[in-house]
Model the fold of this input.
Amino acid sequence: MIVCLAKGKAIVITRDFQSYYIKRSPTYYVGRKIEFTETDIIKNRPLSFKMGLTTACIVILFAVLFYLLLRLIS
Done:
């Protein structure tokens, strides 16, 4: 059963009281009983993966700033 709707995802609770985030469909509403598969479940990414993405973004940002600074100086 769907207990909460968020942007792009829905929180569902199973008969044995486990809760999952699943991909939201436009036809979902709070209280609706649905069936979902393992592929519908949104998995949390590990912290190391998120830190890696953050580091990559910072490196790209500094590279672009360094490039622009060099073009500005010359």
Remarks:
- The beta strands are 2-6, 9-13, 19-23.
- The helical segments are 47-73.
- The mean pLDDT is 89.
- The two ends are 63 Å apart (CA to CA).
